[in-house]
Amino acid sequence: MEVIIQETYEAVSRQAALVVAETLNDKPDAVLGLATGSTPLGLYKELIRMHREEGLDFSQVTTFNLDEYVGLPKEHEQSYHHFMHENLFTHINVPQQNIHIPSGTTNNYRSFCTWYERRIEECGGIDLQVLGIGSDGHVAFNEPGSSLGSRTRIKTLAKQTIDDNARFFGSAEEVPIYSITMGVGTILEARRIILLANGANKAEAVAAAIEGPVTSMCTASALQMHRDTLFFLDQEASRDLKMVEYYRWIQDKMPTAP
Ligand code: PGA
Fold first, then answer.
1. Which end of the chain, C or N, has fewer beta carbons within 10 A?
2. Ligand 1 proximal residues by C-beta, below 6 Å
3. Residue 129: count of CB within 10 angstroms of its CB
């Protein structure tokens, strides 16, 4: 686990984009796990810039998104299908047939979830998974109490998540109650994970994830069991970490490590 603290959100986004670029340089046909929400917007902007100005190539990339709202058709402004196309896919050269996003409108969720898991496997597994974190410590829509071994499934959203996401919908009543989400177990199988967090409203969840006990009450804490996770945090999101000086010290000393 590596904790990388940056001065600003822009620096967090830039650092995360460099990890994505490094992954694609090493493996042009990498499988990327992608997240939605406010947090990765800066990362996606930077990837679009790198694609346009530096030729970062997505032509062989395959993507899997973490989650989707149940009941929202693809065209709905708040669907994660819409979000991903608007904020990333229409601006880069990832082939349409390589894009996977859970369906919010399938008539058989159980078999869709099984297919999604199988499809990830068929594509060779996720090389790099991008994550945000909820103010309740969730990763994807794995709300407190989710099994740390969970797989892609339907999940009922927590009240806190509905309230957090009401800002996108206009009111909490309009936020869907159910989601389809990769499980914690699915996420932990990614070869490398980057979790991005910014802002003071994430500080408590970030501290619980990195320094708290591993518990289903904060599903991001399961990342402590993962062998290659990088946390990119801005100052405010790192505010409640007890070991913050040590993480900075590591960052300083890492370049000269044997
Ligand atoms: P946010 O959501 O990026 O919009 O804060 C993060 C999450 O819920 O995982």
1. C
2. 37-39, 132-134
3. 27
Q: Which of 68, 127, 143, 164 is catalytic?
A: 143
Alpha helices in the chain (DSSP H): 9-26, 41-54, 80-87, 109-122, 159-169, 184-188, 203-211, 244-253
Decide if 136 contacts 143 (C-beta within 8 A): yes
Q: What is the mean pLDDT of residues 174-182?
A: 97
d(CA 180, CA 100): 13
How far is the C-alpha of 254 from the C-alpha of 144, rounded, in Å? 34
Q: Are 31 and 126 in contact (CB under 8 A)?
A: yes
Residue 149 binned pLDDT confidence (cut-offs 50, 70, 90): very high
User: pTM higher than 0.85 for the full model?
Assistant: yes
- Nearest by Cα to 183 from 47, 8, 23, 64: 64
Q: Whose CA is nearest to atom 8 of ligand 1?
A: 134
